[in-house]
C-alpha cells in the first residue's frame, strides 16, 4: 500500500527528433532498419508472460516490398483466446491490489524505454511493418506512445484525486476500482501508439486485458509487448493473441467476465460487435463498457477569404501523410470558385515535388498502403472515377502493386457534392474536391454537414473572424476535432483530446481523463464517526405550551 500522497514526475510531450542527415538518431534508425531486414523474426503470442506457438505460421512482409520476409507470427485459435481470458482473470486480484504508484511506475518506465533505448526499434518496426516514413513513425510509435503512457499516468492520478465532500462526523471517499472482469483491446493497423494505448489505458487503471492487434501490425505489436515486459508488467496483465477478429470476438463476447471493449477501427466492425454485445447482455456479470473510436470522412472547408497557400499545404499534408491512412485524414475538400484556380495551381505545384517509394529511403514522403485488399479497393475507386461523368482525376491516379502496394496521391474533382468519394471513407491517398460557387457558401455548409455518417475531424480556412465564428457554430456537430486554419490531422496527446461522434465513435477522447474514467467503477464509501443512537427526528419533540 502507498504510504504518502506521491506526486508524479512532470509530464511533457516527448520532443520529436529531426532525423536530419548525420544526426545520431538517423544513423541509429538506419542501422536498425538494416538489422531488422537482415533477419527473419519468429513472433509467438504472449499469454501469461509465456511465449505460445502453434502449427500455423503466417508470413510478415513490408507493404512496400511484399516479396521480402520480415518474419512469421504464430496464429492462434479460439482455445488461445480462452487461455488468455483465463490467464487474465487469474492475474486480476493481484494486479488490482497493487498500489497505484507501482502501476504508474511500470508505464512511466515503458514510456522512457520507447523514448530511449527502444526508440529506433519501435520506429523501424513501424516503418517496415506498416510502411511509414521516418517522420510519421517518429510522431506515432515513439512520441505519441510515450505521451499516451505518461499522460495516462496523469489522467489516472487526476481521477484518484476526485473525492467527495464530507459532512461533520463523517468521512466520504471514492475508491476507483478496476472493472469486475477483463477488457478486450482490439487495435487497428494504422497507429502503433493506438495499438499500445488501447491495452495500456485499462491496465493502468488496474484492469487485466486480452489484446488482439491487427494482423497487419503484428510486427510492431511484438515490440510493444517486449517493452511492456521489460518495464516490469506482471505476467497475465496484458495477454497478446494473434487470432482472427471474429475468432476472438466469438469467445470473448460469450464470457460472463467480459467487462469492456477498447476498440479503434472501422465503423462497421464496431457496430457489429455492439450488436452482439447487446444480444448477449444477460450473460455478463456487469454492463460492459463499450469504447470505440472509428471511421471518418474528414473535411477541409475554405471560404473566399482563405489563404490559398495555407489551404494547399493543409490539403497535401492532411490528405496524404501516411498515405491518407489516418482516421483524421482530409478526404473531402470544399473550395470556393473565386480562389480555386489559385489553390489548384499551388496544390499541383507542391504535389509535383512529392516522392513515393519505400520508407527506408528517407526522402520519400509517400510509401505503400497497408495491404493488397486495401490497394484493390482504392484502385477500384480511382478507376471508377476515371470513367464517371461526375468526376475527374486531377492529379495522380496511377496504382502499381508489382513490388509494393503503391498508389499515387490522387486528387478527384467531384462535379456533384455527393459523388461517392465525397461520402465514403476510403482510407488511402485519395482526396476529393468539390468547388462551390461563392454565393452558395451557406448551402455548402449544410451539404457538408449531411453528406457522410461520420463526425471525426474537420478544418476550416478563413481570414474573416465573423465567418470563423459563424462556420464554427454551423458545423458544431460535424467533427469531434475541429481545426481553424490548420490541417485536420496530428492531434497531440495532452493538447487536442481525440475522438469523434456520430458514426465516428463514442467520442471518449483517447489519452484523456474522459477515456480513463471508462476503465474504473467507483465505490463510494461513507464512514460515520458518531453513529446515531436513536431513530427519532428533532421535530418529534412536542410544541411547548
Ligand atoms: N477514430 C479514431 O481514433 C481512429 C483511429 C485510427 C483508426 N481508425 C479507423 O480504423 C480503420 C482502419 O483500421 P483497420 O483497417 O485496422 O480497422 P478494422 O476495423 O479493419 O480492424 C480493427 C481491428 O478489428 C479487427 N476486426 C476486423 N474485423 C473484425 C470482426 N468482424 N470482428 C472482430 N474484430 C474484427 C481487426 O483484426 C483489427 O484488430 C478506419 O476506419 C479508421 O478510420 C479510427
Ligand atoms: N492522432 C491522430 C489520429 C489517429 C488516427 O488514425 C491524428 O490526429 O492525426
From TrEMBL:
GO BP, sorted A to Z: L-proline catabolic process to L-glutamate
Domain Aldehyde dehydrogenase as annotated: residue spans: 58-524
GO molecular function: L-glutamate gamma-semialdehyde dehydrogenase activity; proline dehydrogenase activity
Alphabetical list of PROSITE patterns matching this protein: ALDEHYDE_DEHYDR_CYS
Keyword entries, A-Z: NAD, Oxidoreductase, Proline metabolism
Domain of life: Bacteria
Gene3D superfamilies linked to this entry: Aldehyde Dehydrogenase, Chain A, domain 1, Aldehyde Dehydrogenase, Chain A, domain 2
Pathway: Amino-acid degradation; L-proline degradation into L-glutamate; L-glutamate from L-proline: step 2/2
GO cellular component, one term: cytoplasmic side of plasma membrane
EC number: 1.2.1.88
SUPFAM superfamilies for the chain: ALDH-like
Catalytic activity: L-glutamate 5-semialdehyde + NAD(+) + H2O = L-glutamate + NADH + 2 H(+)
CDD domains per UniProt: ALDH_F4-17_P5CDH
Family: Belongs to the aldehyde dehydrogenase family.
NCBIfam families, per the entry: D1pyr5carbox1
Protein's name according to its UniProt entry: L-glutamate gamma-semialdehyde dehydrogenase
